[in-house]
Amino acid sequence: MLKREKPKERFSYDPKKVLQQLERFGKKVLEEIAAGRNPFIDVPTRGLSNVYFDERDRLIKMGDKTSRRYLFHVAHARKFMQTLLIAAYIKRLVGEGKHASLREAYYANKHTILGSKENTFEDQSESDPVIEDLERMFGVLREEMHITADRRGYIYGNVVIRDGEDEFNASKLGMGGWAVPGTVEHIEFPEINVDYVLVVETAAMADRLIEEKYPKKEKALVVATQGQASRGVRRLIHRLHYEEGLPIIVFTDGDPYGWYIYSTIKQGSINLAYLSEKLATPEAKFVGMAMDDIRKYGLENVTEKLKGIPPNKKGGPTGDYKRIIEEMNYPWFQSKEWQRQLKLALKWGVRIEQQALANKSLEFVAKEYLPEKIGKEELLP
Amino acid sequence: MANSEADKLFKEFKIQSVSEFFRRNAAMLGYTGKLRSFTTLIHEAVTNSLDACEEAGILPYVRVEIEELDTEHYKIIVEDNGPGIPEKFIAHVFGKMLAGTKAHRNIQSRGQQGIGISGAVMFAQITSGKATRVITSTGGEEIIEAWVGIDVEKNEGKIFKKIKHSNPTGWRGTRIEMEVKDVRYIRSKQGPYWYLKLTAIVNPHAHIEFIEPDGKLIVFSRSSEEVPEPPEEMKPHPKGIMTDDIYRMTKRTTRTTVRTFLIGEFSRISDKKIDELVQYITALRLIKGEEEQSVKEQLLKRLVNGEVDKIIASFGKSGKKVLREVRKIMEKPPRKLTWHEAEEIVEAFKYMTFLAPPTHGLRPIGDENIEKGLTGILRPEFVTAVTRAPKVYRGGIPFQVEVGLAFGGELSSGLDLLRYANRVPLLFDAGSCVITSAARNIDWKRYRVDDVDRTPLALLVNVVSVHVPYTSTGKQSVASEEEIYEEIRLAVMEVARRLAKYLGGKHRKLYQVKRRKTFEKYVPEVSRALSILTGISEGEIEEMLVTIIEKKFESIEEQAVGAESNA
Lengths: 381, 567
Description:
By secondary structure, chain A is α/β, with parallel strands linked by helices. Chain A has 13 helices and 17 strands. Chain A has helices spanning 15-34, 77-96, 102-109, 124-138, 203-211, 214-218, 231-242, 256-267, 276-279, 291-296, 319-328, 336-348, 364-375, and strands spanning 40-44, 51-54, 59-62, 66-70, 100-101, 147-148, 154-156, 159-163, 166-169, 178-179, 188-192, 196-200, 220-224, 248-251, 285-288, 304-305, 350-351. The two termini of chain B are 54 Å apart. Chain B is flat and about 115 Å long. Chain A binds chain B through residues 22-23, 25-27, 29-30, 33-34, 36-38, 71-72, 74, 77-78, 80-81, 84-85, 87-88, 91-92, 113-116, 118, 120, and chain B through 515, 518-519, 521-522, 524-526, 528-530, 532-534, 536, 541, 544-545, 547-549, 551-552.
């Protein structure tokens, strides 16, 4: 049976750390200016060219390429100014213990530059990348800099959560569970009474499991991602695994989209490669839906056809087929088991949803499917 | 003083009979269409004034006034401060066709056919039936007021009425008033306004005033105090002559033999050249008598190589005989020269070599004056001009090309091509003009002008020659002679290069100013942010940043100055 393990990381949230980093950064720029030199900042390069898969840590990581941004350079000046503006804003934010959304950060810093018709930021698409740049530069999450992400997802299970001054049990908040906030850095878990975390793609499935009292019977903490996992949820999963030693099991639809959700939880994403070490959980395992489940549980009648053109047809592959072929090439899907699942999907041209299990009976998933697979550890890596 | 000059000038009048000719060929002389006729009228009157002033060494003051009397019915008044016209010449000046002072002379002039002002008088007479009123004085005791017309049958100027006034103030000049019909005043690029503007540009020594029919006064002020030297007569060069020219000249000359006529009336012909000419004519006659085509061609080839002696010798006795005949031509009176003989002379000239024609008779406007004119009238931001060295086309006709270029300032967008021949604006037939084709051939993108249609540019081209090769008698476009085309192209490229250099410097400067502004703009923002991050005061940081900018641009300017002095 899956059991809680010894934690590998400690609760590490400390706003002072971010403040110190910001001050160090400011001092470095000031030193250049005082020396009469053109001040610059080094920003790790974004994009695929600076991303790689670390085989040892099994994580998508950011390379060490940086680009230097000068104040007195026509092409850099504006970006330089914007970076400093946001850095100063974050310093105030963290110092005052306030949080702001991306949009609030944009509006708070948008104003007309004196003596011109130019705004410091014309659009949120200008301020968002600057915040990402600061994350990369300092190696901290924007949540740690008190800039909150969109919130999505909830949890249900017998754990006690401390959120600032509030403390509550996440299995006693009603069927809706506890909504995961944009920032989970400050969240603490004084009490953990579960053996593992079950990450579920759809809210409908999570609700089904809660109604069937699955969390209580199986001593599981159910995390509903509601589609692609938000940063908050991914960070929460990471922390539950590393700080609380809980095994992570992922349950998604049996289609390329579901498998990709698993992929980002496990290895991180290319966009947020620089944060993989804080967001990803390479030890996560996959319970379903797998292609083999279709035969094993006799679900042939409730599959759906894949969208797009198969690779052997004219104009193909497109749609789902194309996506599956891309996933087959991911380094972390190279295991025999995964290649088999993906090949089967291509061969049969079908996908299988979590809720297709309701074809057996409503309780089937909570009483047979999951307990059986997890109990026998029939999990994909 | 002015009086004697004027007398001398008008001594050269010669009379030719073409009054009837005008009636039938009005269109050919520029009197075609309601707008063009109007422009031609103004052109004839103003040219008359400017030429007269120039030849008398007077800084011209010309005033043009147009009154609208009725629909397509106008009164044109042109007044100048020129030398005035002596009483006895008034009828000649205004009444005789081809009575100009230059028609028969080989001289660079504004008008070339000499039909000039008398054509205008004729036009007025035909359309309105009114005589032209002339008020003139040479600055002496009296002012003469005369009503002039043309007796078409007799081809004579006719003074209908003449009044003498005393001249207590010593006024000098000429004022003509003519009434015309069947013309229309339009302020277009082919109308009188544009004509006068273009005239003012190339005559910076002239002060031109213009009152439009609606009473609006336009002044094109003088921007140069220097009266151009009057053109000199140039004897024609043998390479640029045609049979008809020789034939006509023989009928007028006072020389007694063809030999002295050729030596005296042409440039670059000496006594020795006449002996050579005799040999070439002989050789050509002999070669023409040869029946075998291949032999003929071979001999002509040898003639081109200058083997004239050997060719004549090869014909033996008959050669000597023809030589004697040809020698006789040179000794007979010019009047007796036949058309065929004139033809032979012109053909022989083609095989002979002569010194290049003299160019002292050409009177370019001069690059400085073009620059002054363009600056004074168009008020551009940048101006440059180039006057090329004289060249020869068709082997013997000297010509010279001048090009001016104005950019920016009060110019409107697009390229304005200002065409001139001997300082006369060419407003019509632009499409067939060599100036247009040569100027169009320029790839402006190579000269930092990315979009010609949106760049404020004016390009002035003046073709100067004793004999401008017009495409038609309307004299509004220059024929496409290869040498002229090439000279225009080279001159335009030269001014375009100068423009590119100017724009280059301007862009560089503008770029630096813009760069600096960009940096300075962000200084307060950066200072405030850095102050929050580090706790150092905003003012202190700002001061340090401004110092860096100052230092940076100082060194850039030094580099730029260094680079330019090296170049």
